[in-house]
Specification:
This protein is an all-beta fold. It is about 0% helix and about 40% strand. It has one helix and 28 strands. It has one helix at about 15-20; strands at about 60-65, 65-70, 75-80, 90, 100-105, 110-115, 120, 130-135, 140-150, 150-155, 160-165, 175, 185-190, 195-200, 205, 215, 225-230, 235-240, 245-250, 255, 265-270, 275-280, 285-290, 295-300, 305-310, 320, 325-330, 340. The strands form seven sheets. Strands 1-2-3-4 form a four-stranded antiparallel sheet, with no helix packed on it. A four-stranded antiparallel sheet has the order 5-6-7-8, with no helix packed on it. The chain has a four-stranded antiparallel sheet with strand order 9-10-11-12, with no helix packed on it. β11 and β12 form a beta hairpin. The termini are far apart.
Length: about 350
């Protein structure tokens, strides 16, 4: 596997976010580190309960049965059953490694992945967690995870790292699916059942058989894709460096450029129940679709603060996660939006 040239000390929360997501200032050369700039904390350590965890760097959240589960730096896992009116509650997990992604499956199962090739599993909607896999000596983070019913799942990350399980994570097998070993940043399923895997150097791979085999698709550009989403009408969106945004209506066989109107890197997206698409990224970028996917408009986000991911909440609001923790946009359909930051209602995004 290719390795980064070295590890640099972290001097800002934004730089930590860039590292956490697997890319540095020069995105073609990922740099992986923890806050101290040293090697990742041993995976067997237990995360510390911290009073300001909801204001720390958080990278992704998922909703399961009305509960929102968020993950981030230092093994932080936070739960909230009513983000509009109650504080976030941190639970302890058996790692202090950076957690980069979380996914739900079924009524109560959750998996989270992160640095040190850590894979965590919860059977009770996030209350307690078990460590299923970790390899600190590998010095490689996992950056996304996907699961389907029946216990089949995939975890992907830097340097082409891929793990697969067929028994709910009781055993994980490492796989090699692309000889170029790009950093894989995004793994998601389309409405038609294809799996799409995207990453650095314009890498796009598609599986038509639930991950058994993969086909590399022609890419519309050579930069990194940091995220993607399969829309309800079958359209695929991929996005990444400097506001680059592309769509495909034919399962990735061809791609069309969409003008995002921004130069900030785009990191994550979600589709709301009304069909609206929301894309977030660096510099507080929050884009909303105007007419289908033909155009996007810059909306009120978190000024100058990196937004790592967005989650539509059942209340109708938008949950944003990033370098200052978690915020709930409670008036998500209007231009001026209020937020509930760290679980406390009220306040204005500035």
């Amino acid at each position: 596997m290719r390795r980064a040239a070295g590890i640099l000390p972290v001097r800002s929360r934004l730089f930590l976010l860039l590292i956490a997501l697997g890319f540095g200032v020069h995105a073609s050369t990922p740099i992986f580190a923890q806050e101290s700039g040293a090697k990742g904390a041993p995976a067997q350590e237990v995360s510390r309960i911290e009073p300001l965890a909801a204001q720390s760097l958080l990278l992704e959240a998922v909703e399961l049965g009305g509960r929102v589960v968020a993950v981030g730096e230092r093994g932080h896992v936070l739960l909230n059953d009513d983000p509009a009116s109650t504080p976030w509650r941190q639970v302890s997990v058996p790692t202090r490694a950076m957690l980069t992604s979380v996914v739900a499956s079924g009524d109560s199962d959750l998996w989270a992945v992160g640095h040190d090739a850590v894979i965590l599993h919860s059977r009770d909607a996030g209350e307690t967690w078990d460590l299923q896999h970790a390899d600190p000596d590998l010095e490689t983070p996992l950056l996304d995870v996907w699961f389907e019913s029946g216990g089949h799942g995939l975890a992907v990350g830097a340097y082409g790292l891929v793990y697969e399980t067929f028994d709910g994570g009781e055993t994980w097998e490492q796989r090699s699916i692309d000889e170029e070993e790009p950093h894989f940043y995004a793994l998601f399923e389309t409405v038609g059942g294809d799996l799409i895997l995207a990453g650095e150097f314009g890498a796009i791979l598609r599986s038509e058989d639930r991950g058994k085999t993969w086909t590399r698709l022609e890419s519309p550009y050579n930069g990194s894709f940091f995220g993607g989403i399969g829309l309800s009408d079958g359209t695929i969106l991929l996005f990444g460096l400097r506001g680059n945004l592309f769509s495909s209506q034919d399962r990735g066989e061809s791609w069309q450029t969409i003008e995002s109107g921004v130069t900030a890197s785009l990191l994550a997206a979600a589709q709301r129940r009304n069909g609206e698409i929301v894309i977030v990224g660096l510099s507080g970028t929050l884009l909303r679709s105007n007419e289908g996917i033909q155009s996007f408009a810059l909306s009120g986000g978190l000024k100058r603060e990196a937004i790592a991911s967005v989650l539509p909440h059942s209340s109708g609001g938008l949950i944003l996660l990033g370098e200052r923790g978690v915020s709930l946009l409670t008036n998500a359909g209007a231009g001026a939006e209020s937020s509930a930051t760290s679980g406390s209602p009220g306040g204005t995004l500035n």
